[in-house]
C-alpha cells in the first residue's frame, strides 16, 4: 500500500502572496486533495530582518481568499531551529559533517588564487579531513561532507532526470559560526519531519535539490518526489514584474476576480488536461497530475483570466456568489452590502451574472438595484426622458398598478400602451431603462421590474414621468 501523499507550501513572509507562489500552493493543494492526502503550510521565517507578521497575515489571507485550506497549524521554521541544529550535530557525530575553521578572508583568498590559476573556485576546505587534535580554539562552521566522485541525479517529475557532477558541489555550510542553522538544512529537516512525500516548487529551486539530497542521503532518509515547475512570465515572455500588472493575490481580489475563476486560471497556467479550459474544483482535483505540467514558462494572459472568471460567475451558486460579492465590496473599501440590497441582488442574479467577467462588471449591471430614489439620470438616460416619453410613462403607471407581476403580463401591458401611442415597444425601452435605472445601458426592463417589484418599479416610473427638465 502506498504511503499517503503529503505536500507543502513554504512561503517566506517578506511580502504579499505572489501570483507565482499562489500557483505553487494551488498545485500542491490539488495534488494532495485529489489523492486524499495532506496539504501542509510552513512559514519560512528564518530571515528575521525581512520576515514580518504583516507579511505572514497577508499570505494567510491570500490563501484563504483562494480557498486553499491547509491541514493542521501553520509551522514556523524559525521556531524549529533547535531541531535543525540537532540534525547538524548528529551528522557531525557520524563523521558525515565536519568543523571548518576557515575565515572569510581565507575563503576569498582561495577563490582568488583558483580564479588566477584557471581552477574551479568551488571552496575546498582544508579542515575536511583534519584531525580533531589540530582544531584551534576559534569560531567554526559545520559543513556537510559532500560526495566528491560520481554524480547526483535529480529524478524530477517535470524536468526529467537532471544530472549534476558531485565535483561541482561544495561542502555546504549546515550551521553558521554563531550556531544558527542555514535555510538549506532547515528545509530538508522540516520536510522530513513533516512527512512531505512530494516537493512541488518553482524551478528556481532545482539546483538546491542536488545539495539538499546530500543531507537526505547522509541521514539515511528517503528522498521526496521532486517536481520543479517553470516560473510565470508576463505576456511579453519576460520574467513577471510590476510592469505587467498585479503581482499580489490580494490585488486580484480587489480587482474583482472570483476565487473559483482564479483557481481555474492558475491551474491552467503551466498545466493542461487535454483541451479543457473551463473546469470545476472537483474536476481539477481529479485530473491534476505532475505529468501534465509543461517545461516552458507559462505566460500570464488577462483576457483568458477574464474569460474563465466570466464562466465561473455565470455558473456559480447565487448565494455563494453573493457572499463573495460582499467580500469583494469590503476588500475594495466599498463597505459591506446592506441587507435590503443583498436580498434584491440575490433575486436578481439570474439577470446579473450573464456576461459579467468581474465583480465590478456585475455591480455595474446591478446599478438599478444599488440606486435609491430619487434616481439621478446620466446624460443618455436624460435624453430618453423627453416630454413625449414622460407622457407615455404617465399612461403606463395606472396600467402597472393592476397588472399581474409576471413577465408575460408585463409584456402585454407594455405592448398595449405602445400600440395605443402608435409606436413599437422598442421605442418605450429607452425611457423605461432611464426611469428604472437612471441610465441607458441596463439589463432587460422586464428583468429589472421583476427584481424591483411592483411598488418600487411604479414609484420610479412615476418619478421619471414627473421629472421635467431632466
UniProtKB/TrEMBL annotation:
Motif mapping: 'HIGH' region: 11-21
Residues that coordinate or bind ATP: 242
GO BP annotations, alphabetical order: glutamyl-tRNA aminoacylation
Residue window of motif 'KMSKS' region: 239-243
Keyword Ligase annotated: yes
A Pfam family per the record: Anticodon_2
UniProt enzyme class: ligase
Domain Aminoacyl-tRNA synthetase class I anticodon-binding: 329-464
Enzyme Commission (EC) number: 6.1.1.17
Protein function: Catalyzes the attachment of glutamate to tRNA(Glu) in a two-step reaction: glutamate is first activated by ATP to form Glu-AMP and then transferred to the acceptor end of tRNA(Glu).
Protein name according to UniProt: Glutamate--tRNA ligase
Organism: Donghicola tyrosinivorans
Organismal lineage: Bacteria, Pseudomonadati, Pseudomonadota, Alphaproteobacteria, Rhodobacterales
